Structures are given as C-alpha cells and as structure tokens.
Amino acid sequence: MKRFTLVVGLVLVCSVVLTALVSLVWTPFDPIRVVAADALLKPGWPHLLGTDAFGIDIVSRLMIGAQTTLQVGIIAVSIAAVVGVPLGVLAGQGSGWVSEVVMRASDVVYAFPALLLAILFAAAFGGSTWTAMAAIGIATIPAFARVARAGTLHVMASDYVLAARSCGTSRMGIAVRHVMPNIAPLIGVQASVAFATAILAEAGLSFLGLGTRPPTPTWGRMLRDAQNLLFGDPLQSLWPGLAIALAVLGFNLLGDGLRDYLDPQLREVS
Amino acid sequence: MTDPLLIVSNLSIDFGRHRRPALTDVSFELADNERLGIIGESGSGKTVTALAIMGLLPETATASGSIRLRGNEMVNTGDRELAPLRGNLMSMVFQEPMTALDPTMRVGRQVAEVLTLHQHSAKEAARSAVVAMLARVGLPDPERIADAYPHQLSGGQRQRVVLAMALVNSPDLVICDEPTTALDVTVQAHVLATLDAVLDEANAACLFISHDLAVVSQVCDKVLVMLDGRVVEAGTVAALFNDAQHPYTRGLIAASRIDQLEPGSRLPQVEDYWKGNDA
C-alpha cells in the first residue's frame, strides 16, 4: 500500500510510453486516411473503439496522439529544466541581489500562463508543435527555478558544502559536484509533475487549434472534433478525454510516489 | 625570529547590531607546529573563531580586527583571494562526521577534491595519494573505503575520512572543530591518537576546539579559555590545571576531575565557581 501511488503511476506512464513506441512501427489502421463509408462506427470489431466522423480508427489516432503528447512533454520539460535548474542554483548560491533578480524575473514569467504565451507565439510564428513546446517549456521554467533554489539553499547550508569550501572549492565546483547531485531527486519529482502539466497544456492548446497542425492526430484536437457530436455520439469525446486524464494522472501519481519514496522524512510520517 | 604562523589581534565579530557580539577583542598567536586548544561552552565563540580564520563567516557577520595567517590578512578579504589558501595553507576538520561528507559522492573522490584543486594532480596520482592518506589515518582496507559512499561507513571511519580530507594536502594549519564530540568515548580515543600521530608526521600546527578539557589536554600544549566571546584565560595546559586564575576556568577544571571524587558526593559544577557576569 505504501508504494501504491508509485506503482500505479509507473504502470500508467509505462503504458503511455509503450503505446507511443508501438505506434511508431504499427497501428491497427491508417491514422490519417479518410474512409467516408466507415464514419462514426460504434465500438466493435475490427474498430475496437469505433471510428470518428471521417471514418478513421480511434484506437490508431489515440496511439499516434500518445507520440505527440510525449514529444511535447519531453521537450517542454527539458527546456524548463535546462534553463530553470541552473538559474535556481545560481539564485540559491548567489548573494542577495542575484537571487532577487532571478526570482523576481521568474515571478514575472510565472504570471503568464502557458496558454497566453502559446497564443502569443502562435500569433507571431503560426501555431505548430514547436510553438506549443516552447510556450509550455518557458512557462514551466519558474517552477524548476523555485524548486532548484529551495534545494540549493538547503544543500548550501550543509556541513559538506562548508567542508568543500574549506578545501577551497569554487562556487562553480560546489554547484556542479555537490549541489546538482543532491538536488537531482527533487528535480526528478518536479519533472514528473511538470510533465503532467505539460500534457494538459498541450491538450488545451490543440483543443484551441494552437498546437500541432492537422492532419497529425493529437488528443486535444480529437476532443475538439468530438465536441460537435457530444449529444449524438458522446463516446467520441470519452476516449481522448480518458487518454488525457489517465496520462496526467499517471505522471502526477509517479511524481507523488517518487517524492514519498525519495524523501525520508515524509516516508517516516506516512 | 620569524613571525608566528597565525596572529589574531583584536578580533571582534557581531551578527547584526541588536544581538550580543559573538566575539569581543580576541587576540592570540600560534607558531608553526604548535598546538593550541580553545575550550569554552556552547555559544562562547569557539566555532566563530575557527570560521573567521578560514574566512568562512556567514554573510551576515561583520568582523573587525585582524587575522594574519602566514602574512595573509583573512578579515574582510574576498572569497576569490581566500579560496586558493583554503585547503592549501589551512584546512578544517568538522564536528559532525555524519554531515561533513557529501552523501552522493564516493569518499575517495571527496578526499581527492582538494588535491585536484590545488595541485592539479592527475587522476591516478591523486587516487594513490588519497589511498595512502586513508591508510595513514588508520582506515583498514583503504582501497575499498575510497570507493565507498559515506553511508556505508561507521561514524569513526567517517571522522577519519574527514581527517584525511583535512590533511591530504599537507596544510600548515589544521583547525579541528570539536572533531570527536559526535563519537563515543572509545572511538574518540582512537581518533585522537591518530590525529596526534598524523599532525606530528605532517608538521602541521593545530587549533583544537573543544568543550572537553580532558580531550584538549591530551592533544594540546597550550589552552585558551573562552567565555561569552572573550578570552578569559590563556596559558599552557599544566599552568592552567595547577594555577587557574579565572573562577570560570577553576569551575571547568573541577568539573573535569570527577574521577577524584568520593562516590556518592555531589558533582562539582561550573556554577559553584562562576555565576556569570550578571551575578
């Protein structure tokens, strides 16, 4: 029971990853080709979850959608971590004003929701997977910077950093050799949680037509297409909605489970 | 005659205007190869003195006076100038062996850090120096211990590693901040004997901070007694034991001689001799 969240999270995340990997080489039907005769079939055989308004197999579209979801998640979280973590460490190590400047700048970015940035980017460069990833990534930078800063402050107050300084290790050396490895678990947890947020943001952007361009299927756009049929064929919106919900839940549970697993203090309490 | 290794003169340190100063007008000297003990209760300014000599005071501290180590002024000097001296000229042994080692780093790499920093030694050279040093501080199977993580070692072993870290680059001055307080008494005796031997071997001077008079008298020739941020007494260990001037010191000595008491009689306390400045 103790590791329940971790296990469930892992199972959900692994199934999304596995689905995306399989879809790279195989899907049951062509996820793009329109077959007018097969439109809006009910779930059954051979279309397990039925077909959409264009007669395309929903299972196939969901599988390809997992690819986009993961791609956006991975790149957005990477952007956020690669920029946010060093900034956070700098703020945690630096003297008063460095820390102030970095944290107030991150507050400013924090004030812009990913959606707003994505609309801005879409207006400037035209909506695409890349603008969505960049917008989500940039909007997530403050979250990483804050976690990294908090972890750095904690590590910098430790005796082993004092010991390293007493050996003459430079600020940079302490950051790379002592701070980074010690805050890595925190960053891992944050990455998992940020991944969930990124999936949600990506779905929202696709729903609004600001993300990946058609015809590549994404969960968000499948939801939007199904919206018109909400009363006629509600199952159409259920499948992509379920996929988004399970993926988000999976990464959130994974993050929570990891945190409980890695943080000894929390572990003792529970 | 050459100048002493370390000259501390009129050192005062405080943390903000509204708090009692941590140190007031502290002065002492330490020659090469000499060992000076600093004793005093918690909050008497022992550790702050050590950190000031290392140039590792927190940013909130303001210091005045002077600390000269081999002619280098340490007070109010920037990190950039001090970093090359740390680990080379002076090094420090910390109190808590459980927290003084980075849990994510192999012990050998941690000890080697100071070598690669100051001597730019190649990896293999540093490694063999580290293993030799670990052997010198009395660790069995140093090859294996160099590859271990801190959580795989016992408290005594860790403290020996911390000792190795401080001594591997042969500094002129080793500051030991209560190096044996966190250890149990038998391990403490072993570590002290090791410290004694390695200090001799390395020809290093030592500033030994402790609240334990017995421990200090085992390692040091001279003692400094601190109380509320001031030096109240200084002299050789023998002089202190035979002819203490300050009532606080007499209290400390009485309290350390519990082995000479009749069983069942009341234990002497420092308060019997010294009621504090308020009284």
How would you describe what is shown here?
The complex is a heterodimer of chains A (270) and B (279). Helix content of chain A is 75%, strand content 0%. Chain A is an all-alpha fold and 270 residues long. Chain A has a single domain (51-263), classed as Orthogonal Bundle (MetI-like fold). Chain A is elongated and about 75 Å long. Chain A starts with a helix and ends with a helix. The model of chain A has no long low-confidence stretch (mean pLDDT 86). By secondary structure, chain B is of the alpha/beta class. Chain B has a single domain (6-243), classed as Rossmann fold, CATH 3.40.50.300. The mean pLDDT of chain B is 86. At the A-B interface, helix 6 and helix 7 of A face helix 3 and helix 6 of B.
Query: What's the gyration radius of chain B in Å?
Result: 19 Å
Order of helices and strands of chain A: HHHHHHHHHH
Tell me the strand percentage band of chain A. under 5%
Question: What's the overall average pLDDT of chain A, rounded?
Answer: 86
- Report the count of strand segments of chain B: 10
What spatial form of chain A do the alpha-carbon principal axes imply? elongated
Rg value of chain A: 22 Å
What is the annotated CATH architecture of chain B? 3-Layer(aba) Sandwich
Summarize the helix and strand pattern of chain B as letters.
Answer: EEEHEEHEHHHHEHEHEEHHH
Determine and state the CATH class of chain B. Alpha Beta
Sheet/helix structural class of chain A? mainly alpha
Strand order of the largest sheet of chain B: 6-7-8-3-9-10
CATH architecture of chain A: Orthogonal Bundle
CATH homologous superfamily placement of chain A: MetI-like
- Largest β sheet strand count, sense and barrel closure of chain A: none
In the CATH hierarchy, the third-tier topology of chain B is known as Rossmann fold
**Count of all domains of chain A:** 1
CATH fold name of chain A:
MetI-like fold
| Poorly predicted ranges of chain A | none
> How many helices of chain A?
10
Number of domains of chain B: 1
